[in-house]
Design a protein that fits this description.
single chain; 340 residues; alpha/beta; Nucleotidyltransferase, domain 5; 5-stranded mixed sheet; 12 strands; 42% helix
């Protein structure tokens, strides 16, 4: 049995994992708290983690029917993320592991996302017996990454974010339009009623042969567009058309570059995870392009796209089984930890 904790940003989560199965996965979200400020306030996020961590961990253990002394290992997100938020969970895991004399695994948040598309079924379980080499898209508010995964625990980063990530572009567009926080889901909902061809926005680096992403230019284009068309966001139809057009630009870049990378790398499988993978337009576009090029597609379940401890635990257990060295008892969090 392994207990995993996740506190990298604004979700406090704990999960119990056993032999590749997610026995429990509890998530306490802070969305309502931060909505008042239009974004995550690090100090408030840390305070809430400290308040919620023990109850959430107790609930995860209770749902799993597991006593603390039955744990074989402990895991927590070590980075990347908000420094104080990371410390809340990682230091708690260090203390528990030291007290129980169990190994501690400090997990890279993005590496854990690589395996969330493989956590499926009821009950949730890792389907590593079906594993195939794949190109994986990790797309969230702070990061957009393309990664070649050749085997479990073996990967190579192909490209990443040069400036604004896709999720940032969604959220900043929503803010320009006066939509509530978090803005990405609002853009998605309004886009469903709009015409994606109503307005023409740039597709940054779409034809660039590399695998990197850049969305700052698209965000700037939206801002200039709104300056030239004041009051447009007050018209419901125009607002929906604008959301649909911006979303179409973002998802075309994400899906096209992901599928192109898969074909160039010679793999037959594409996976996707991270908070923006909840976007319905992105899910549809990835499905459409993968079907066209005869590629298999695995998308993380929406509940596992956002931050959660289940994916942390699945990866930690895999590392434990592979005999990888646990983290040092006095290890520090790594807020800017890059995936290699």
């Amino acid at each position: 049995m392994l207990l995993a904790l996740e506190t990298s940003c604004d979700e406090t989560s704990a999960a119990v994992v056993h032999q590749g199965r997610v026995v429990s996965n509890v998530v306490s979200s802070q969305i309502r708290l931060h909505a008042e400020y239009g974004g995550v306030v690090p100090e408030l996020a840390t305070r809430e983690h400290l308040r919620n961590l023990l109850p959430v961990a107790r609930e995860a253990l209770s749902q799993a029917g597991v006593a603390v002394n039955q744990l074989d290992a402990v895991a927590a997100t070590r980075g990347p993320g908000l420094p104080a938020a990371l410390r809340a969970g990682f230091n708690a895991a260090q203390t528990l592991a030291f007290t129980l004399r169990r190994p501690l695994y400090g997990i890279h948040h993005h590496e854990a996302h690589l395996y969330s598309p493989w956590i499926q079924g009821t009950p949730l379980a890792a389907q590593f017996d079906q594993f195939q080499p794949n190109v994986s898209l990790i797309v969230s508010g702070g990061h957009t990454l393309l990664i070649l995964v050749t085997a479990p625990l073996q990967h190579r980063v192909l490209g990443g974010t040069l400036d604004d990530a896709a999720g940032e572009c969604f959220d900043k567009t929503a803010k320009l339009l006066g939509l509530p926080y978090p803005g990405g889901p609002w853009v998605d909902r309004l886009a469903a009623e709009g015409n994606p061809q109503a307005f023409d926005f740039p597709r940054p680096l779409l034809t660039d042969p590399g695998h990197d992403f850049s969305f700052s230019g698209l965000k700037t284009s939206v801002r200039y567009f709104l300056q030239k068309h004041p009051g447009l966001a007050e018209d419901r139809k125009a607002l929906c058309d604008l959301c649909a057009s911006v979303q179409a630009a973002i998802v075309e870049v994400l899906a096209a570059k992901t599928v192109r990378a898969a074909r160039q790398m010679g793999v037959s499988l594409v996976t996707a995870s991270g908070g923006v993978t909840c976007n319905s337009g992105l899910r549809r576009e990835l499905e459409r392009r993968c079907q066209r090029h005869h590629l298999e597609l695995r998308l993380a379940a929406p509940s596992l796209c956002t931050d959660n401890a289940a994916m942390i635990g699945i990866l930690a257990e895999r590392q434990h089984e592979a005999g990888m060295a646990p983290s040092s008892p006095d290890a520090e969090v790594i807020p800017g930890w890059s995936l290699e």
